[in-house]
Amino acid sequence: MFVMANFLFAIATVLDIVLTLYLWIIIARAIISWVIPFSRSPLAHTIAHGLARLTDPVLWRIQKFLPLRGMGLDISPLIAVLIIMFLKYFLVATLFDIARRL
Domain span at residue 55? Predict the structure, then answer.
């Protein structure tokens, strides 16, 4: 039984780290999207492009359901952050609780 508990604990820990890292990537993309129009640095544009490639698969799916992008307001990063926070507080916490009880 302890093997299953350790396995669930490991999955929960890795999932927590991955979700936290992706959360910060989305936040960095949102911040750099405000700054990039005023920057002439090729490094800033390279970073913005890399962050966009990492976050576009998730944000694009959210934007399909929220057609507000044409209005000049993109709230898909906010929705993605809320979804990640839900997953961290529900799914990861549940996995930790199950691992502790085994």
Answer: 2-101
